Amino acid sequence: MDAMVNSAEHENRTEGTAVRVLLADDEALMRAGLRLMIDGAHGIEVIGEAADGGAALQQIRALSPDVVLMDIRMPHLTGLEALRALQEEDSAARVVMLTAFDTDDFLLEALRAGAVSFLLKDSPPEEVVQAVLDAAAERPRFSPRCSRAWCASPPPSRTGPASAPVAPSGRRRPTRRHPPPRASLAVNGEVARSVAEGLANQEIGERLFMSVATVKTHLGRLYHKLQVTNRVQLAIRVLELGG
Fold it and tell me: Which of 5, 34, 177, 206 is the 20 to 30 Å CA partner of 44?
């Protein structure tokens, strides 16, 4: 178990100006790299480190960080198990899950368990900093390569391949052909996929040549249609459906 606190910076922090971050990763070099990336950037303050999920839980309880950068795969207690424990405790810490693989099977499960974002470990410094700032503001941010990989994959089959209905006579009834979706539904789909790729409203507007207000309108329709209340839940639904 490896845990430490940068007490001098913690004591000298100006109230309300710093985003207090805990680093949880079993690799010391990874923690050192993350600290170099974010400590002191845009009001971010690294207040502690942990080398496994159990140590992370102790640090979170003791230090009450705003954001936790947590490796999803750690010894003794994994990041996913630690995240579930935090949810049971109703912790206010916002967890950004870290992974080395853009197809990590546990990431979707982590989002369902309450992670606000996920990032690849080789993300550039500016992306890591932005993810911390977004998490502190309760804005999800997903590593684009992860979400693109998921959206490109077919959704898991729960009932097996679909087949045409069989008439009482034993002959298969012709499959009913539905009319093509209206343009507005197609745009809603593009907005949903863009959210799952981790794009902010401004970025979605630039991609789809629409105003931020129009993006928000489409998001409202998607929330209502898919019965979700935020971007993380929307992204989970898109990823479950295979983009």
Answer: 206
Average pLDDT score, the chain: 77
H, E, C per residue of the chain: CCEEECHHHHHHCCCCCCEEEEEECCCHHHHHHHHHHHCCHHHEEEEEEECCHHHHHHHHHHHCCCEEEEECCCCCCCHHHHHHHHHHCCCCCEEEEEECCCCCCCHHHHHHCCCCEEEECCCCHHHHHHHHHHHHCCCCCECHHHHHHHHHCCCCCCCCCCCCCECCCCCECCCCCCCCCCHHHHHHHHHHHHHHCCCCHHHHHHHHCCCHHHHHHHHHHHHHHHCCCCHHHHHHHHHHCCC
Domains in the chain, ordered, with CATH?
Answer: 3-143 (3.40.50.2300), 183-240 (1.10.10.10)
Give the tens place of pLDDT for each residue, 164-200: 444 444 444 444 444 444 445 577 788 888 887 777 8
